Amino acid sequence: xxxxxxxxxxxxxxxxxxxxxxxxxxxxxxxxxxxxxxxxxxxxxxxxxxxxxxxxxxxxxxxxxxxxxxxxxxxxxxxxxxxxxxxxxxxxxxxxxxxxxxxxxxxxxxxxxxxxxxxxxxxxxxxxxxxxxxxxxxxxxxxxxxxxxxxxxxxxxxxxxxxxxxxxxxxxxxxxxxxxxxxxxxxxxxxxxxxxxxxxxxxxxxxxxxxxxxxxxxxxxxxxxxxxxxxxxxxxxxxxxxxxxxxxxxxxxxxxxxxxxxxxxxxxxxxxxxxxxxxxxxxxxxxxxxxxxxxxxxxxxxxxxxxxxxxxxxxxxxxxxxxxxxxxxxxxxxxxxxxxxxxxxxxxxxxxxxxxxxxxxxxxxxxxxxxxxxxxxxxxxxxxxxxxxxxxxxxxxxxxxxxxxxxxxx
Length: 410
Description:
The structure is a single chain. This protein has helices at residues 11-30, 36-42, 47-74, 77-95, 101-115, 118-129, 135-151, 154-162, 165-186, 209-217, 220-251, 255-285, 291-312, 316-344, 350-377, 382-400. By secondary structure, it is mostly helical. The protein has two domains: 11-195, Growth Hormone, Chain: A, CATH 1.20.1250.20; 209-400, Growth Hormone, Chain: A, CATH 1.20.1250.
């Protein structure tokens, strides 16, 4: 058995608080996509301009992620999270009061800046509190809040359809600001020496940007994680980005039914997978420091036949079985990414490292979606894209076996 450091008081309370913040983060982000008709009726815009609202958000979000992670390492993580929640909630509330497209685009850009600060700080804070056999499960629960928030984005469209599009932004903006006061009262960075933790944990880091960059880029294990996350992004976006199109064409489904099957089954299964993968890795970590690496690799290996089943079957029920299996196992990678970083990075660099990976994932996602469209224009069958994605996942699993933990993991 591997000895565990003491868990600071309030560790699970932090997880609960961050679950709510993660839910609000993605809810505020995605609900604009569910009220297209109502929004276009109130503020005239082209289809391209409507699409730009999400694209611009993602570009800013991606570019700011490494810097946002550095802020969380440079200052206390809890203060960065609280400030981020207040900022994006205010911008959400401001969105309800815009009258022109230019104003709407400006609020989306500001949302991208403020929301970028949440996830690197939140997952690093969870890692600070949960330093033993509870880290993966705690991370999975917080990411579950993110998934629930994304799924609840449709509430915005429902409110817009029944009342007015601005009401949703007003409501959730006020809720977010109100919950920020709860955070300021209850969310704290963990105690340090009192709990037997290293002095660097929970205390601001005074290192400069150049030093952090040298530390990350000079770390061969982090570069492997960087390649792993990028390749996984290519494979995962290739699969999920074109799944609705494949189901519609291959099984003769309507657009709405294909979209529902492609998203609902995968998301529900992934929500379960976050918890299952986290609990499994935590249990295994009591006897094996590399448990988070092994669980991720096993999940990816299991996702390969799942996707090949979807790509090769002529039966819709079997395709759904493959989608459920894929959603369940691919979620292991999300749950374990921060625990993997804890094996290879110093605690004072965790948020920055995750921010860099988050930036890369967003960039790869956008490029892969475009590349998939180009391949479709070249008359490449969608099933071939899934086969390429399955091959990429197998390669990702292989990369994990090359990562070597530090002698003193975070």
